């Protein structure tokens, strides 16, 4: 009898409002790249403390491909173990059906304060499946001290400039440091390479692999040339091992002072400026270079927070997501971890700009980032991305040439497309 | 045996059959829980895998599966596009690499394991310590040792990549990566092989060697004429175990190469890529069925060719 009363009381408490609910335990799945995990824990703890609930943080794998696999298994099994998922910007189309429609359940003003493009990305069939948490765009990190030492006054604006600068600096530095590399990026065969390669191709006028109408556009000379250019970096300005690097491997080399240039996401800035970093005070950030006849391009990244449909405590989970995606929380993450906010007004916030100066000048490059073709390809996006990164990897490792790669990739993509996306 | 049956006529065989059949019945009852457990944890998943291999199904919505027969294995569309996984060169690359990995690593592990077992089988001071110490690589979980080796192979700061090879990236290219992976597997599993062989060695009677010594047989002859033939059953069981393990290798590739490259290097990696990363439940299941068949054929070939007895 007592149990029944308690149950009724608990149900009443939950339905009457999350903040009064008597201590439920939620689980949030956060990434662990860079400072993500600590920041996620801290944010969740702040919410837990103020509401009297408990939040457990589930540490998911580093590689985004691995995370997706794990999430899919949890969601396909309709598991209630994880209440809140951190979702990559390319997943809403693939996983949307498993998430609660947040429209009407979170304050309209919060949704409206975000970049409309990201909100649109997270809306699947009229359903808002996730709230934007932070956005990402590829950036060029460089060593200010080394540029000065070798007589350069500003960051490179074209890929050719980057290659010649990196070569000169590398040749000079390798006299004293054999492990020094000119340029490091994400060359491992995984989603990260898809992002990097899309930047090379789009910035050289080669399009976006698949256009908005779903047409396969990769088989063109500009794209082939962009890949050949990237392949020419291997062993000249980039170590051969770059084809095995992910974000953290590249950051490790740059932060140890062993690289002049690095392509990475904004999170690497704050870590590079941290007390134990060997390059503290010597790094700066610029938009990624472009090819001849192209435009500066950054691939759109970023992470969202969604509430699982199978969560047993949806009201609390929605409250947690609302809290974490709020301007106040995004500001903390921007200041402490240089995670780019999804709320435009924060880019004019004095405290944010003081902590991460590049946010001011990179505003347009971060917010005009180009999307991967996850929209038009829907549930087949992962196969597309995997075929793409595989083909690019073959060019980088010298197994094939750009032109052959893009034409066979077009065939593979047609095969994946089958009757339609 | 014959004496006893000759004793009391007629009734005895009947009664013995009674006891035997009672024992057999008892054995069935004792085995039943195990059989049920196997049916639930192994039989049902196997049945579901075979079932889904005939369907076009998606991991995120398995309830919308559509029957397609053997299309997941081999099917050419009207436009001449092959969508069966057997038409994918990547799959055949994975098969080739897995077989190479299995043959080379198991061969090396057997030879090295035999040498180690013979050494720690002889009496010397600190033998117990050596036997424990040699198990350390085997005790480390594969994901941990694989990550450890991946760091060592790193071309920029790795002990091997930078220190020994002077900045070569072994893992960057699949054709060199396979040898790097074999090295990791040999490092890790040789001790397990040595342990199995050591167990076999310990069961050999010592008086046999004394007799051989008396007859003037050299250590070399003793090894080839006595040790090896008597060790054969234990050795073959160990070989079957290791080959099976090596054929379904997954974690080393996955940790050291990442999901996409692992799919080109191991059959199980290919299955995972199809099933999980691409959420193609049907194709992934079909690949799993193929792996099951390949392993079964190899085991049957092994067992019949070498007349391995498990009893």
TrEMBL record, chain A:
Signal peptide residues on this chain, from the entry's feature table: 1-21
Pfam families reported for this sequence: SBP_bac_1
Keywords: Signal, Transport
InterPro entries named in the record: Bact_solute-bd_prot1, SBP
Family label: Belongs to the bacterial solute-binding protein 1 family.
Protein known as: ABC transporter substrate-binding protein
From TrEMBL, chain B:
Domain ABC transmembrane type-1: 95-304
Swiss-Prot/TrEMBL keywords: Cell membrane, Membrane, Transmembrane, Transmembrane helix, Transport
Cellular location(s): Cell membrane
One cellular component (GO) term of this entry: plasma membrane
Predominant location: membrane
Protein name: Sugar ABC transporter permease
One BP annotation, GO: transmembrane transport
PROSITE patterns linked to this entry: ABC_TM1
Assigned protein family: Belongs to the binding-protein-dependent transport system permease family.
Superkingdom per UniProt: Bacteria
Membrane topology: Multi-pass membrane protein
Pfam families recorded: BPD_transp_1 (PF00528)
Naturally occurring in which organism (per UniProt): Deinococcus sonorensis KR-87
Residues annotated as transmembrane: 27-47, 99-120, 132-152, 177-201, 280-305
């Amino acid at each position: 009898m007592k149990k029944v009363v308690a149950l009724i009381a608990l149900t009443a408490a939950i339905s009457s409002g999350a903040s009064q609910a008597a201590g439920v335990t939620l689980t949030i799945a956060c990434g662990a790249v860079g400072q993500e995990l600590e920041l996620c824990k801290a944010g969740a703890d702040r919410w837990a403390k103020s509401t009297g609930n408990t939040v457990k943080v589930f540490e998911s794998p580093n590689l985004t491909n691995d995370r997706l696999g794990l999430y899919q298994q949890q969601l396909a099994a309709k598991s209630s173990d994880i209440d809140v998922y951190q979702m990559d910007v390319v997943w809403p189309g693939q996983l949307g059906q498993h998430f609660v429609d947040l429209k009407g359940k979170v304050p309209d003003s919060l949704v409206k304060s975000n970049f409309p493009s990201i909100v649109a990305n997270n809306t699947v069939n009229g359903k808002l499946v996730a709230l934007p948490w932070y956005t990402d765009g590829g950036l060029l990190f460089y060593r200010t001290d080394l540029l000065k030492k070798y007589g350069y006054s500003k960051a490179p604006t074209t890929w050719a400039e980057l290659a010649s600068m990196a070569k000169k600096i590398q040749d000079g530095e390798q006299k004293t440091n054999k492990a020094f590399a000119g340029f490091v990026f994400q060359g491992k065969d995984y989603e990260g390479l898809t992002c990097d390669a899309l930047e090379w191709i789009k910035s050289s006028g080669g399009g976006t692999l698949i256009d908005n109408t779903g047409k396969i556009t990769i088989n063109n000379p500009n794209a082939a040339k962009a890949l050949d250019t990237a392949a020419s970096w291997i062993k000249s300005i980039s170590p051969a091992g770059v084809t095995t690097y992910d974000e953290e491997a590249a950051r490790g080399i740059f932060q140890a002072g062993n690289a002049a240039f690095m392509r990475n996401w904004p999170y690497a800035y704050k870590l590079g400026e941290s007390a134990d970093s060997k390059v503290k005070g010597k790094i700066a950030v610029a938009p990624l270079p472009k090819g001849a006849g192209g435009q500066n391009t950054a691939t759109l990244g970023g992470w969202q927070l969604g509430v699982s449909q199978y969560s047993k405590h949806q009201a609390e989970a929605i409250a947690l997501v609302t809290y974490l995606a709020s301007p106040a929380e995004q500001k903390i993450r921007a200041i402490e971890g240089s995670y780019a906010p999804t709320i435009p007004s924060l880019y004019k916030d004095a405290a944010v700009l003081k902590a991460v100066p590049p946010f001011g000048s990179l505003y347009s490059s971060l917010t005009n980032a180009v999307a991967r073709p996850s929209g038009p390809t829907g549930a087949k996006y992962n196969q597309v991305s995997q075929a793409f990164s595989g083909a690019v990897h073959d060019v980088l490792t010298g197994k094939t040439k750009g032109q052959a790669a893009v034409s066979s990739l077009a065939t593979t993509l047609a095969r994946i497309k089958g009757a339609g996306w | 045996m014959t004496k006893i049956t000759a004793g009391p006529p007629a009734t005895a065989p009947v009664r013995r059959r009674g006891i035997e059949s009672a024992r057999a019945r008892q054995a069935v009852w004792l085995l039943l829980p195990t059989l049920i457990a196997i049916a639930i944890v192994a039989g049902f998943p196997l049945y579901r895998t075979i079932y889904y291999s005939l369907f076009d199904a998606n991991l995120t919505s398995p309830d919308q599966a559509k029957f397609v027969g053997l299309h997941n294995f081999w099917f050419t569309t009207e436009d001449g596009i092959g969508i069966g996984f057997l038409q994918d060169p990547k799959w055949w690359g994975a098969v080739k690499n897995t077989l190479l990995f299995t043959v080379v690593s198991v061969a090396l592990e057997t030879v090295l394991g035999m040498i180690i077992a013979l050494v720690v089988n002889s009496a010397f001071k600190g033998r117990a310590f050596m036997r424990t110490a040699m198990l350390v690589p085997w005790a480390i979980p594969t994901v941990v040792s694989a990550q450890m080796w991946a760091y060592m192979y790193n071309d920029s700061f790795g002990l091997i990549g930078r220190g020994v090879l002077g900045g070569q990236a072994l893992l960057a290219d699949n054709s060199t990566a396979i040898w790097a992976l074999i090295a990791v597997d040999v490092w890790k599993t040789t001790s397990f092989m040595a342990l199995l062989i050591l167990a076999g060695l310990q069961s050999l009677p010592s008086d046999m060697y004394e007799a051989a010594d008396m007859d003037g047989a050299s250590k070399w002859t003793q090894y080839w004429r006595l040790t090896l033939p008597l060790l054969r059953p234990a050795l073959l069981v160990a070989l079957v175990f290791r080959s099976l393990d090596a054929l379904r290798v997954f974690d080393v590739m996955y940790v050291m190469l990442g999901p996409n490259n692992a799919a080109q290097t191991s059959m199980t990696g290919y299955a995972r890529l199809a099933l999980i990363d691409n959420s193609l439940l049907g194709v992934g299941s079909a690949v799993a069925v193929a792996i099951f068949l390949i392993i079964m054929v190899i085991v049957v070939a092994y067992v019949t060719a070498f007349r391995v007895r498990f009893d």
